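Re: weekly structure request thread

Next one in the queue (186 aa):
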Amino acid sequence: MADPTTTLAPPSLRSGDGAQVPAGTATSPVVEPSRLAPPPVRPISQPSSPVAGTPARIESKGKVARISDQTKGIVDDAKTWVDLRIALAKQEVRDEVKGRVDGAKAIGQPLVLLIAVVLLAGAFFLLTLSFGFTALYVWGFASLHAGLLLGFLTTTALLGIAAVVFNAQFQKAKAASSADSPKTPA
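Done, posted below.
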């Protein structure tokens, strides 16, 4: 079995002969999986003197450097936390929008079909009503052409009267609802 660190690298990095890396090729070597593990936890420094209460002596770094490193770690953790909170908020918004869109689709498709059927039924009702008035006019006193004209004009006049009545009722309801609702200052 081939070594995974060499099989994933570009040919110039695998050969080890110092050849030039072609343009557009990654120049970083492949990282071994063992190098991807987190660094080992650094133990807390132990006091160098056996006497209790004496300050510990740090051999590698000074006190300021330790505080600086710890502060950098806290800042990095805070940045990561804020980034994750932002990502979580974005995901929650996406989920909420997706849920509402799916709900609207579930309601909207049958509603559109219902509206189309009602409009088609309304159109056939109006045609039937107009032809009914035409038949009454032709039976009573008019010729066929005049009866057609009068039948459709009668239907149009009735629709106009109904529109005026519905508009008046809507305006009354709107005025009543605006009078009942508390007014907010602008």
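The mean pLDDT is 76. The chain has four helices and no strands.
Next request, please.
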